[in-house]
Amino acid sequence: MGNPVVSHAAQVLAHVPGLARHGSKPSRELPRNAEVLAQFLGSLRSFDEAVAYLPHQAYIGALHPRDLPARPWVGAGPAAGRFTSGGEIMPEEEFLGLLACLDQFGLVTLDYEVAELAAAGLARHPLAKRLNLDRLAAASGDAEAVAAEHGSLPLHVARDRLAAGFRHAHDSDDALAAGVLLENLACKATGTLALLHLIDDHGIDPDSIDYVISCSEEAVGDRYQRGGGNMGKTIAEAAGLGQASGADVKNFCAAPVPALVIAGALVASGVFRNVAVVGGGSLPKLGMKFQGHLKHGLPVLEDVVGGSAALVTTDDGASPVMRLDGVGRHRVQAGSSNPLIMEALGVQPLEELGLSMLDVDDYATELHNPEITEPQGSGNVPERNYKTLAALAARRGDIGREAIPQFMAERGMPGFAPTQGHLASALCYLPHAVRRLTSGDATRVHMIAKGSLFLGRMTQASDGMSVLLERNQGS
Amino acid sequence: MSPVFDGKFVIALGERDGVAGPAIAACAKAAGSDVVFTATECFV
Amino acid sequence: MDLGTQEAILRLVNQHGKDKLLVLLGAPDGESAEISAETVIIGDPTYAGPLAEAQLGLDVYHILEEEIRSWIPADTWDDQVGLMADVLDAEEISTAVRGMRDRRESSN
Question: Cα separation of A153 and A237, whole Å?
Fold first, then answer.
């Protein structure tokens, strides 16, 4: 059947400062302190600021992360466009409209004026023909009354203006509470938006896609099967992929790489020809580090929900090849030792292919934006990963110890992704990887993801997986 | 045994980006200590 | 520090007594190590968890500190920590945790 390839990737952000208060941290901290709430609301970014923010532009593919200037990035970006070929940054009114378009259960009631604004915005949107805009009229109503209902949540735009009421779906089922459903619908909407850009921006026939694998982190289900749900098929339906089915791959932040590898294996084995991998965003992560941002006089930087989609297909002779013989996995017996994990993911697969660490041009690891993590004392995640990889390269003798900084600068990159772990984990580099391995001058990109399984209190273990992408020799 | 470890029960508080809890626990056990609690924190 | 972890530490203090416990940290930098050390010595600096103002004064070291490292068998050390000793700034981390221990001693 030949090698699978990654032919296209798309990436989106929804700028939702009004929803940031529903992130897990703000939802606990803000209601108990009016002063902090006022400071939080006063520190939210405008849409223009969010679009101009250079890491966001890198996320939607407008510039390579290594072309980012020295920090600080806040306030540094020139006015920029919201669209790229294969991505966009969507403003909050349109995103609330998108939530309403994708809501099949009457969960969202949009304020009349917001519904009109959203309808006007989405009607002009390049993907308008693929959205069911009729739903917007049906979803408009008395948002204030709905928001005041038992179990409902108020949703806001323009920092503090009530824009919608969001209903719960059951009186006594915590898995169907308004907050949970909002998380899930936001995940569905960002995943759908990314998938729509993938097919529309690259001229892919929606009916050609056989299967959609979601690597999103939200838990869809009711109380009898909390987290058992299927976001993959949900997003396939929402994006109008009539011939597709789908399912989910769950592995915390590490999920995108196993999702890609499974997609590749389905294609290589001939089970399916075209498999899309999608990741919707994580609303609970919004404002997670807002206290650190406020303390350092920064805006609330976690105010976007991300989305990502990629197409894995049969060898077209041009697109980057997924080396299924270059997959690294974090074995149980490696335990929790960071050096052993990084060796298993970053080095062993190369050794098995007879390659050195210098045969990889770009290492895509956990690319969390350090401007978001450092003010809260969480350090620079990608930099630590690159230090570990460079130290491994030095130990192997691929480079001298003095060349460690050069290895990190040339083969690593600054983090640019929002702190929604699965999106930051290598997945966010796919649009850049496809470009670098086709029109660019790279030969190999190593995708490395890690996940904190212990967060769920079922194991002390963590996990990780890596896969090598390579320039297609058929071209 | 080290005077620091002597007669102590170890609480292993690891971090995902540094040294993980189970890795600390393995070290403490190898040094002859009793580990009574292991956790790993993840801040991203 | 995670609130569940703070609760667990409080339970262990009640069960074994403060003097019987040794906290070993794996934080990746000085700032993070200092916050963890502060939490188990003075109390949760964010005042969010059960260790807020707890004044436990527990014995706390980072795994990379010489007092600990020198007692770990070499093969275990290489497997479990190894390279991380080069990747992380052991000196900055040691200084931060030692600083917190000194504050405990001066207040005793």
Answer: 26
Nearest CB to A339; choose among C28, C29, C83: C83
Closest CA of chain A from B21, distance in Å: 8
Mean per-residue pLDDT, A241-256: 98
Mark yes or no for CB contact A337/C81 under 8 Å.
yes
Residues 6+ apart with CB under 8 A from A314: A1, A2, A4, A5, A267, A273, A274
User: Which residue from B17, B22, B43 is facing A336, i.e. has the nearest CB?
Assistant: B22
Q: How many CB pairs under 8 A join A and C?
A: 36
Task: Report C:89-108 residues touching B (Cβ under 8 A).
Answer: none
| pLDDT at residue A228, as a whole number | 96
- Mean pLDDT of the A117-134 span: 97
Q: Does C13 touch chain B (CB under 8 A)?
A: no
Counting residues of chain A whose pLDDT is more than 70, the rounded percentage is 100
CA distance A42 to A299: 8
Q: Which CATH number fits domain A321-470: 3.40.50, 1.10.10, 1.10.357, 3.40.47?
A: 3.40.47
Task: Tell me which residue has tokens 């700034």.
Answer: C89
DSSP collapsed to 3 states, B1-44: CCCCCCCCEEEEEEECCCCCHHHHHHHHHHCCCEEEEEEEECCC
- Residue in C with minimal Cα distance to A381: C28
Please name the residue that has the structure tokens 């600021």.
A49
* Cβ-based neighbours of A232, under 8 Å, separated by 6 or more: A211, A212, A213, A214, A246, A247, A248, A278
Whole-complex ipTM: 0.95
- At A14 the three-state DSSP class reads strand
H or E element that contains A75: none
Instruction: Name the residue range of residue B32's domain.
Output: 9-41
Mind telling me how many Å the CA of C6 is from chain B's nearest CA? 11
Contact B39 C8 (CB under 8 A): yes
In a domain, B2, yes or no: no
Residue A56 — left, alpha, or beta (φ > 0 → left; ψ -120 to 50 → alpha)? alpha
Q: What's the domain count of chain B? A: 1
A254 interface with C at CB cutoff 8 Å: no
> Residue A150 and residue A344: Cα distance in Å, rounded?
51
Per-residue pLDDT of chain B (44 residues; tens, 9 = 90+): 677 888 899 999 999 999 999 999 999 999 999 999 999 999 88
Residue-level pLDDT at A77:
84
* Per-residue pLDDT, A475: 55
Q: Which residue of C has its CA nearest to A378?
A: C32
- Taking the C-alpha atoms of residue C47 and residue C53, their distance in angstroms, rounded to an integer, is 7
Q: Is the pLDDT assigned to residue C11 strictly greater than 80?
A: yes
Quick check: B36 and C79 CB within 8 A? no
C51 touches chain B (CB under 8 A): no
Q: What is the pLDDT of residues A268-307, one digit of tens each?
A: 999 999 999 999 999 999 999 999 999 999 999 999 999 9
**Closest Cα partner for A365 from A257, A218, A443?**
A257
> Is the predicted pLDDT of residue C108 greater than 60, yes or no?
no
Per the CB < 8 Å rule, is B22 touching A335? yes
CATH of domain A4-90+175-314: 3.40.47.10
Q: Tell whether B25 is covered by a domain.
A: yes
